[in-house]
Write a structure and sequence with these properties.
Creatine Amidinohydrolase, Chain A, domain 1; about 35% helix; alpha/beta; six-stranded mixed beta sheet
């Protein structure tokens, strides 16, 4: 039994008619670490972007034109349709293969707030039940074979390349928040964090044939408050000494495991800005329940 068939069996056990599987990880990164490449594990597709919808008795992989031929090669031993990417194609396939009242599961950590809202609207129109998972069945099936998460050292990106210091950028962001009457901004996109703090690393990497493709940003999140507090959720041990010294007193480094509890504490009753296309649904939805969430992409 291959991994796709194992997942389909698990869906029958759990009572879900289907599961959405994006190529992105918990940071919505296109270049996920091996431990976050769930789409690859289930289907064999090794490209950087795509979406699979796995039902109990069939599955489809939705890819853009760059990856159609690769997708057909990668999934040649798996019973899965390879179709064009796009909302219309995806929704037509779902409409043809699901009936009213059936349950479609989604892992809110792996999709943006905007994506899940779109799925919710479609599910409502089709009288489907969209269920947000608390545990992804893929992770349970992957088990001990799943690669360990890797964490690289995080280092300075020189100001001569960045243009402005991190202090100047944070000050500009706080002025932006004050001008728009927001209390804080949730930066869930690691690329935004790397830009704001002028930091780099090689957390995000993907093997392509015999070469490595590296996106040099640390997989971290931030909360920036208009009052001046800047909270960075990252393991302190990962910071190179020179970087730790530069940020001393300017940024409060916090354990990533505290992110949800701190988010709840610091955003309750507050006006929160976030790029909802780059913020996972689970965090954005959580913030919306305790405060007032505003779509604010900072561009």
């Amino acid at each position: 039994m291959n991994t796709l068939e194992r997942l389909q069996k698990q869906l029958r056990t759990l009572g879900f008619q289907g599961l959405l599987i994006p190529s992105t990880d918990e940071y919505l990164s296109e270049f996920a670490q091996p431990s976050g490449q769930r789409l690859n594990w289930v289907t064999g597709f090794s490209g950087s972007t795509g979406l699979a919808i796995v039902l109990q008795d069939r599955a489809a992989l939705f890819l853009d034109g760059r990856y159609k031929a690769q997708g057909q090669r990668d999934t040649s031993g798996v019973s899965i349709e390879v179709l064009d990417a796009g909302v219309a194609v995806r929704e037509r396939w779902l409409t043809a293969n699901l009936c009213a009242g059936q349950r479609l599961a989604v892992d809110g950590r792996l999709h943006s707030y905007v994506e899940v809202q779109r799925f919710r609207e479609f599910a409502k129109e089709q009288e489907l039940e969209l269920v947000e998972l608390t545990q992804n069945p893929i992770d349970a099936l992957w088990g001990a074979e799943r690669p360990a998460v890797t964490s690289s050292q995080i280092f300075d990106y020189p100001t001569r390349f960045a243009g402005l210091t991190a202090t100047e950028k944070c000050a500009q962001l706080r002025e932006w928040l004050i001008g728009r009457r927001m209390d804080c901004h949730l930066l869930a996109d690691p690329e935004d964090v790397a830009w704001l703090l002028n930091v780099r690393t090689d957390d995000s990497q993907r093997t392509i044939a015999t070469s490595w493709q590296i996106v040099p940003v640390p997989l971290t999140r931030m909360l920036v408050e208009a009052t001046g507090h800047t909270l960075w959720f990252v393991e302190r041990s990962r910071l190179e000494p020179a970087l730790a010294a530069r940020l001393q007193g300017a940024v409060e480094v916090m354990d990533p495991g505290l992110f949800e509890s701190v988010l709840k504490e610091r955003t309750a009753g507050k006006v929160i800005g976030a790029n909802l296309r780059r913020t996972s649904h689970c965090f954005a939805d959580f913030a919306a329940k305790v405060g007032v969430l505003i779509y604010d992409p900072l561009v």
